[in-house]
Structures are given as C-alpha cells and as structure tokens.
C-alpha cells in the first residue's frame, strides 16, 4: 500500500509538475528519484510514461505474486522485503546520482575557475603585450635620443677641435705680439738709457766747461772781484744753454690739471706736483706769487738756479713764468726725513749710508758757499729738503728762490734780510734769531743739527743740548744704524762745533774737511795701536792723563 501510495505520488508529481522544474524524492534522508528540469516536453512525457508503465507492471506483478500466494503473511513479508530491497537500491542509486551531481557541480566550478583564470591570463597577456610594446617604443626613443646625442657630441667635438686650433693660432699670435712688445720695450729702454746717458754726458761737459772757464777766468783776473750780476755768476762769462720754458697748458697736461692725486707735498713757498714731461718723471714746484717781488726777480732767480750744476743739488730742467712754476728732476726715494723716521715702514739707513749723506751735504754746501763773486746761502736746510735718489744718494732742494750774499755784506753789521727765512725753528741759527743776519754759517748750524739727527734718529727739538749733556755716547746713538764708535765720535764732535751759539766758533766747510768726511764712511773701526795704550790699564794715554787730573 505504501508502495502504491508512493508510486502514485511520483506519477502525480511527474505529471503535474512543470517540465522546467527539477524534482528530488527523498526517503529517510536518501534520494530515491530525481527529475532534471527540461524544456523538451515530449522527452519527459516519454520518460514518465515508461516509468509509470514499469511501475504499473511492477505493481501488477507484485499483486499477482501476492495474490498467487496462499499465506497472506508470507506474501506481506516478501512484499516488504522486496520494497526494502527496492528502497535500498533506490537509495544506492540516489546516492550515486547525488555523487555524480556533486562531481558535475565540482567540475562546473573547476571549469568556471579555469575559465576565469584563462580570462585573467588573457588580460595579463594583453597587458604584457602592451607593456612590451611600450618598452619597445621607449627603447626605440632611447636609441634615437642616443643617436641624436652622438651626433651632437660629434658636432661639439668638431667645434671644440676648431676652437682649439683657433686658440693655438691666437696663442702663437699673442706670443708673437708679446715678443714684439718686449723687443719694443727693450728698444724703448735702450733709447731712454741712451737719452739719459746723453743728458748726463751733457751735464758733465757743461760742468767741465764751467770749471774750465772758471779757472781760466781766475787765472786771467787773479785778485779782482767780478761783477755781481747774473752773467758773472760763478765766474762764467759765456752763456750756457737756456733752460726749457713751458706753458701753463704743458704743466696742466703733465699733472692732470694739478690734480690732488699728483701732489707730492706743500710748503711755505708753494706746492709740489709729480708729472710726466720731456719723456721722464719730473717734480713741478708751483710758487706762490706773493713770495716774489715780480716777474723780473723770478726770471733772475731762474737764471741763477739754471747755472747751478752739482751732483748733490737737484737739477732745474725748466720753468713756466706764466704759472710761476719750476720744473725739477724727480727723485723716487722721498726725503731724508721719511727715511730717517722710517715712514711707511721702510728699511732704516745704515751708518755707511748716513755718513755718505753727511759727506754729500757738506760737498753741496761747500759748493754753494764758495761760489764767486756771490755766495749762496740756502737758508732752509732741513731733512725735508734733502731728497734721495734710487741709490740713496742725496740731493739738496729748496735752495732757491736762493739768497745771494756778497763778500762785503758779510762784514756789514747793519745788513739785515727783508724776508724771514723759511727754515723750521730747531734748524734756525740762534745768531740769526738775535740779530737777523743770514750768513753761510747759518747753513752750517742747520747742517750740525742734521748730523746729530742722523746719529741719534731723534727729532731736532732740544737735541743739541741733550747730546752736550750726555756722558755715554752709545746711549743716544740710533741702534738700527750700528754705528762704529770712532766714526760716531768724530761726527758728534764735528756736529757740536757746527752748532756753536756764536758763528765765529763754527768751522768753515773747506775742501779739506769735505774730503775727510768723504773718506769717513769707507773707514772701519780698527783696534787702537799698542803705543797709544797704557800698558797697565790698557786705555788711551789721553784718557789715562785725564783720569789722573781728575784724581
């Protein structure tokens, strides 16, 4: 009965459930029959009809077997056994079907996963192809850029090669030009040296001519006094070549219109500028017009200064009456004042150079004081007016506008100068300060102060009294000069004689004294001969006798 009932449910479901539905019959947790969804109704109907017919035949046979039996219980048990066997077979078939379905689902899932992986691989392949294409494009671009850079490199290399060739050519031309410049510079220096030597030769010839004419005139007119005019100055009867005369525009061009950057100094008489004239460096002194009595006095002084030729007097090269200016040679090493007090950190002067400067100053003063028929008094002798050349040989400047002194005026007590000397107070003759008479002995007093300055390296104020009061000579000497004591003692003695308050106590600068000073700087300190020393005390006999007198 249960079988029939169950078979009727299957038939009913198979007939009335739509074909697109899937049917599962589960009995006691086991699948006993299934029908898959299908749109083919003919096929399903065929299957259901076959199933129903088989089921009907099964039922009929079962009924026939049951009915044929004699024992109902036996028939019932056999029916139940057959039903259980059928259910077991159906359950086994359902399990197999379910396992097959699971395998199908698993296979479908695997197929779907494989399909998705294929799609992923295909997209990855497409992306890789695209990346490869982009890489190939970038590589092609890089290769093109590299080729372009190589071409540019070759072009730059060619340009560099051309430039190097041009530089080499220019270097050769520059060397050639430098060589030509050096040759031209050498020729120019040679020409300048020749011009300088010619000028020196000219000056030497002029001095020899002046000396010859001077001595000839003395021989001719021995014992007669010459006239006191400019033509008879220094006993010269013939006119020397006239000095160069410059215009104001020439001086303005040489000094950049008297620029402050060209100014060398300024004094009471005027201003001194540095300039370029006559193919050489010159010193241009522009005088104050109020220092002159007039144009005639200026011309006279220029004529006098132009005839003074001495190795230790600054040479006058020309004049400019229009600008009241004098053009002198230029000395590059500044003044004795600068070197003595080491201005601008210059090296100190040695004792030999200082002694030679003393001899050169004495030679120049002897020349000025022994001129005939009129003596020349400097009147402003001081270290600022003593200039040094490149060999540290000195030349006196500012000796003009000079003062001419006749022999008669030296012995006239009533003779006084109308102008005040330009010298600084420490170098001024005390006798002149009292009576107002300027003589060659006034220059000698200033010369004595300068000698003391060269010995001590001290300022002039109060220097004479300090040296007179000292008892130890070495304590006041300038240590940078390294003075030998014999030379220092002789110069101190001579300087103190020059600085006597009375002019009568001052010695004259004679040629003999000048020669002594000229030989003094070449002598060296020698040991005192034994016969001048006391054999017991080993001191000079003069010092030994003085000690005995004191005791």
From TrEMBL:
Gene3D superfamilies recorded: Phosphorylase Kinase, domain 1, Transferase(Phosphotransferase) domain 1
Domain of life: Eukaryota
Protein name, UniProt field: RING-type E3 ubiquitin transferase
Catalytic activity entry: S-ubiquitinyl-[E2 ubiquitin-conjugating enzyme]-L-cysteine + [acceptor protein]-L-lysine = [E2 ubiquitin-conjugating enzyme]-L-cysteine + N(6)-ubiquitinyl-[acceptor protein]-L-lysine
Domain Protein kinase: 258-522
Any Pfam family hit: PK_Tyr_Ser-Thr
Coiled coil region boundaries: 132-166
Keyword field: ATP-binding, Coiled coil, Kinase, Nucleotide-binding, Serine/threonine-protein kinase, Transferase, Ubl conjugation pathway
GO molecular function, one term: ATP binding
SUPFAM superfamilies: Protein kinase-like (PK-like)
PANTHER family assigned: OS02G0152300 PROTEIN, OS10G0100500 PROTEIN
Entry EC no(s): 2.3.2.27
Keyword Coiled coil: yes
Enzyme kind, highest EC tier: transferase
Cited InterPro entries: Kinase-like_dom_sf (IPR011009), Prot_kinase_dom (IPR000719), Ser-Thr/Tyr_kinase_cat_dom (IPR001245), Ser/Thr_kinase_AS (IPR008271), U-box_ubiquitin_ligases (IPR051348)
Keyword ATP-binding on entry: yes
């Amino acid at each position: 009965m249960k079988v029939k009932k169950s078979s009727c449910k299957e038939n009913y479901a198979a007939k009335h459930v739509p074909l697109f539905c899937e049917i599962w019959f589960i009995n006691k947790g086991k699948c006993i029959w299934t029908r898959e969804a299908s749109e083919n109704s003919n096929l399903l109907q065929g299957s259901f009809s076959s199933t129903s017919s088989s089921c009907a035949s099964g039922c009929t046979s079962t009924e026939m077997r049951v009915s044929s039996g004699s024992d109902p219980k036996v028939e019932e048990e056999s029916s139940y056994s057959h039903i259980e066997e059928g259910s077991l077979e159906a359950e086994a078939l359902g399990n197999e079907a379910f396992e097959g379905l699971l395998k199908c689902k698993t296979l479908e899932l695997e197929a779907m996963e494989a399909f998705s992986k294929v799609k992923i691989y295909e997209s990855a392949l497409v992306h890789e192809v695209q990346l490869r294409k982009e890489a190939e494009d970038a590589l092609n671009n890089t290769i093109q850029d590299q080729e372009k850079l190589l071409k540019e490199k070759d072009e730059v290399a060619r340009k560099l090669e051309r430039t190097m060739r041009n530089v080499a050519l220019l270097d050769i031309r520059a060397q050639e030009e430098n060589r030509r410049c050096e040759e031209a510079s050498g020729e120019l220096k040679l020409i300048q040296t020749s011009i300088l030597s010619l000028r020196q030769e000219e000056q030497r010839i002029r001095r020899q001519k002046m000396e010859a004419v001077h001595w000839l005139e003395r021989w001719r007119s021995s014992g007669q006094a010459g006239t006191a005019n400019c033509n008879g100055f220094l006993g010269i009867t013939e006119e020397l070549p006239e000095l160069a005369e410059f215009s104001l525009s020439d001086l303005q061009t040489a000094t950049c219109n008297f620029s402050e950057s060209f100014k060398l100094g300024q004094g009471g008489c005027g201003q001194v500028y540095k300039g370029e004239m006559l193919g050489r460096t010159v010193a241009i002194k522009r005088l104050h017009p109020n220092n002159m009595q007039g144009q005639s006095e200026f011309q006279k002084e220029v004529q006098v200064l132009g005839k003074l030729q001495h190795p230790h007097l600054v040479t006058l090269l020309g004049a400019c009456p229009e600008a009241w200016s004098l053009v002198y040679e230029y000395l590059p090493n500044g003044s004795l004042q600068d070197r003595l007090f080491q201005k601008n950190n210059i090296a100190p002067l040695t004792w030999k150079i200082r002694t030679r400067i003393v001899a050169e100053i004495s030679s120049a003063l002897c020349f000025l004081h022994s001129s005939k028929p009129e003596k020349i008094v400097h009147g402003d002798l001081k270290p600022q007016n003593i200039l040094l050349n490149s060999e540290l040989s000195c030349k006196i400047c500012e000796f003009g506008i000079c003062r001419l002194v006749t022999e008669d005026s030296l012995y006239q007590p009533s003779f006084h100068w109308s102008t005040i000397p330009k010298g600084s107070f420490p170098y001024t003759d005390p006798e002149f300060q009292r009576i107002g008479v300027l003589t060659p002995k006034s220059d000698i007093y200033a010369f004595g102060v300068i000698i003391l300055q060269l010995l001590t390296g001290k300022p002039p104020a109060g220097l004479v009294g300090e040296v007179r009061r000292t008892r130890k000579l070495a304590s006041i000497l300038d240590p940078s000069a390294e003075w030998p004591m014999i030379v220092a003692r002789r110069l101190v003695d001579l300087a103190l004689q020059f600085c006597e308050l009375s002019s009568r106590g001052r010695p004259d600068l004679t040629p003999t004294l000048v020669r002594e000073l000229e030989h003094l700087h070449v002598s060296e300190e020698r040991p005192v001969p034994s016969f001048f020393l006391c054999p017991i005390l080993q001191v000079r006999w003069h010092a030994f006798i003085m000690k005995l007198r004191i005791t």
